[in-house]
Design brief:
Elements (H helix, E strand, L loop, with lengths): L12 H7 L3 H19 L28 H11 L2 H8 L6 H10 L19 E3 L2 E3 L4 E2 L5 H4 L3 H12 L2 E3 L3 H9 L6 E5 L5 H14 L3 E5 L9 H5 L6 H4 L26 H7 L6 E6 L2 H9 L4 E4 L14
Parallel strand pairs: 3-4, 4-5, 5-6, 6-7, 7-8
Antiparallel strand pairs: 1-2
Bound molecules: flavin mononucleotide (FMN).
Flavin mononucleotide binds next to loops.
Length: 320
């Protein structure tokens, strides 16, 4: 099954362009012009040297071409994981308007540069929810890390530990396990919410006693996002048990939108359910406007994360 996944502009093109055959004719034409005009301007008259026909750009070995920025990892992933798995990770909801808008919005940020500031000692550390962090980098909750690499949850956790990033959405048992080896990163538990008060309370207490530094609840997932790419791929949502990424029978196991209510009854009272049983900071993820930010704080949140779930839930929501 093949489909065009190149629906978005990618910035991973520096190296691709180097390798691209598209550049060779242009480079050849440029070199002919440069060499030709240089030869004509010498006192010795027109050059008798043979004109180069093309410039052969160096073919870098794979270890040189290895990904060095985040954008480049995406094209590597396309070759390493199956299309349904890739699509599941990359897809936004519906027409992916919000996904595209998110990326475009990043392109609108520019740095106003000041000069003549002594930067020999740069301190990126900050105080966040009661802890001193080396830098303000948090890994967002991602439910399917094992889909992208065998033992992906553990690898991500160890990477977070090594780079001093906060891991949001860490599996509790894994954190306890890594904690025994002194290799657990600072972590926040994450949840998409629970339908019942007892479930929410149990989740909060269990994570607090396992060593979470905060509890993060995403309020933007009352229904699974209606994602076209997994539908087209016949995505098998039980992949971790079946070992397959498509249902194999043309059915779509990934049910989204109104067909798949997740926690449609979630409301601000949820924060009270959690607040009553924990002293940990509560972070509400998925806020995209001032009214909701205010409501979240009034209802007991210590912090909010401005997010539209990467455009994976409600298409048409504006960019963060
Ligand atoms: C494969 C994948 C799985 C995700 N799973 C979750 C999840 O379980 N819970 C959640 O709150 N967000 C989840 N997200 C959303 C991310 O946490 C994050 O919000 C998103 O990638 C975009 O970043 P933004 O929040 O800055 O818009 C997932 C994103 C991806 C790509």
């Amino acid at each position: 099954m093949q489909q065009d996944v190149n629906t978005l502009e990618h910035r991973d093109t520096r190296r691709q362009w180097l390798r691209s055959a598209f550049l060779l004719p242009i480079a050849g034409a440029i070199s002919r012009r440069v060499f030709g005009s240089q030869a004509a301007s010498t006192s010795e008259g027109p050059s008798t040297q043979e004109e180069p026909h093309s410039v052969v750009l160096p073919q870098y070995p794979d270890d040189v071409m290895r990904p060095v920025n985040l954008h480049e990892f995406e094209s590597v992933a396309r070759t390493k994981i199956s299309l349904p798995a890739y699509d599941y990770v990359a897809a936004g909801a519906a027409d992916e308007l919000t996904l595209v808008a998110n990326r475009a919005a990043f392109g609108d940020f520019w740095i106003r540069r000041r000069v003549m500031v002594d930067t020999s000692n740069v301190d990126t550390s900050l105080e966040l929810l009661g802890f001193r962090l080396a830098h303000p980098i948090l890994l967002a909750p991602v439910g399917v890390r094992d889909l992208m690499a065998h033992d992906g949850d553990r690898l991500t956790a160890v990477a977070a530990f090594n780079s001093k990033a906060v891991l949001v959405g860490a599996p509790r048992d894994l954190m306890v396990d890594l904690g025994k080896q002194n290799r657990a990163p600072r972590w926040w538990a994450a949840s998409l919410g629970h339908a019942k008060r007892e479930e929410a309370a149990r989740w909060a207490k269990e994570n607090e006693s396992a060593g979470a530094s905060a509890l993060c609840i995403s309020f933007d997932y009352p229904y699974s996002g209606a994602r076209d790419r997994p539908s087209r791929d016949h995505w098998e949502s039980q992949w971790s048990e079946t070992g397959r990424y498509d249902t194999g029978d043309g059915e779509v196991a990934f049910q989204a939108g109104m067909i798949a209510p997740f926690t449609p009854n979630l409301s601000w009272q949820y924060l009270g359910w959690v607040r009553d049983v924990t002293t940990l900071p509560i972070v509400v993820k998925g806020i995209t406007n001032g009214e909701d930010a205010k409501r979240a704080v009034e209802a007991g949140a210590n912090a909010i994360i401005v997010s539209n779930h990467g455009g994976r839930t409600l298409d048409g929501a504006f960019a963060t």
